[in-house]
Amino acid sequence: MKFVTMAAAAALALGLSSANAEPVKVGMITTLSGGGAGLGIDVRDGFMLAVKQAGNSDLEVVIEDDQQKPDIAVQLADKMIQSEKVDVLTGIIWSNLAMAVVPSATAQGKFYLSPNAGPSALAGKGCHPNYFNVAWQNDNLHEAAGAYANFEGLKNSFLLAPNYPAGKDALTGYKRMYKGEFAGEIYTKLGQTDYAAEIAQIRASGADSVYFFLPGGMGISFLKQYKDSGVDLPVIGPAFSFDQGILQAVGDAALGVKNTSQWSKDIDSPANKAFVESFQAEYGRLPSLYASQGFDTANLLLSAMAKADVRMLMRSARRWKKPISLPLVAASSSVRTITRSRTSTSAKSSRKVTSTLTRSSARL
User: Fold this and answer.
1) What is the pLDDT of residue 313?
2) Domain 140-260: which topology?
3) pLDDT, tens digit, 9 for 90 and up, residues 116-132
């Protein structure tokens, strides 16, 4: 897995032309319907905002809804590769979908730029030269949470996550850094919305804290039910459990929670301020970390296009066994967009909720 900070100038050494003979075609497969739609919508909107701001007519984007189903994602990827003839794939939110799509796509010589899912199985020995993660490896933010729990003197955590690759990576990351005991550990059904049984177990466990990873609608359901239950244990989670959509939906139920993240809308830098302001102006809502990751993903691709011919890079990647790098430089670019999905950009800005931002040591 190659993070943005590892994307350097190796492609320049190839002496490749900076002009693409034909538009680079991007296939975005993401979740635009169902309980996880907010995450995919934010990735899509962040990506397309960067594309709009850049103004490059050499980029074409095809967008499809995977419905959060691995079989649908595989079908869409096959269609995009075989029929649409895309050069680059991106967009997948969920790690089980990424595991179903990425290995086959990269084996066929396509670049995959991940704006979110970073399964540990695609890192290390499993890293393909054509696979770039523009966000994080799955366990990174959870490692930071484990370290924070130590700092706060917590001794007996109860752990909760969905039973799919990212959920397992999440708890592995937390346990890697956390030094205390475990009052309980539960893997819930992916997409579950009723947590009465799990909250009852937390109540009876003797835990002094709760760590949970439940993105999207799962997090909304859990936080509301947790507040209503009267259980009064400190709650820690990654940013995925407290994104802008979740905070808006749960309101006061999120007051006092602590979360770890690699990004915040409140980061005081000119680039981040410009991104937050432009996203809010474009879509009428605050960006989430998913939107920031989509924005970064598009800018990585655009910067590579400014320095190299993507198709020549793809041909080189098929020949070379060692990794190549996408050059990361300033870029500017517009795009012809083909959207074949149900879209929704509804959601208003959320008020600020108390949180703690802890940087992961493995962050970009």
Assistant:
1) 63
2) Rossmann fold (3.40.50)
3) 999 999 998 888 999 99
Cα–Cα distance measured from residue 173 to residue 175, given in angstroms and rounded to the nearest whole number: 5
Task: Quote the mean pLDDT of the chain.
Answer: 83
pLDDT, greater one: 335 or 271: 271
CATH number of the domain at 4-136+269-340, please?
3.40.50.2300
Q: Are 30 and 47 in contact, with CB atoms under 8 Å apart? A: no
Give the pLDDT mean for 335-355: 32
Domain ranges of the chain: 4-136+269-340, 140-260
The three-state DSSP-derived secondary structure of the chain is CECHHHCCCHHHHCCCCCCCCCCEEEEEEECCCCCCHHHHHHHHHHHHHHHHHHCCCCEEEEEEECCCCHHHHHHHHHHHHHHHCCCEEECCCCHHHHHHHHHHHHHCCCEEEECCCCCHHHCHHHCCCCEEECCCCCCHHHHHHHHHHHHCCCCEEEEEEECCHHHHHHHHHHHHHCCCEEEEEEEECCCCCCCHHHHHHHHHCCCCEEEECCCCHHHHHHHHHHHHHCCCCCEEEEHHHCCHHHHHHHHHHHCCCEEECCCCCCCCCHHHHHHHHHHHHHHCCCCCHHHHHHHHHHHHHHHHHCCCCHHHHHHHHHHCCCCCCCCCCCCCCCEEEEEECCCCCCCCCCCCCCCCCCCCCCCC
Q: How is residue 359 written in tokens?
A: 């940087």
Q: Tokens 């594309």 sit at which residue?
A: 51
The reported pLDDT for the residue numbered 11 is 34
Lowest mean pLDDT among 12-21, 41-50, 314-323, 353-362: 353-362
> Do 4-136+269-340 and 140-260 agree at the fold level?
yes
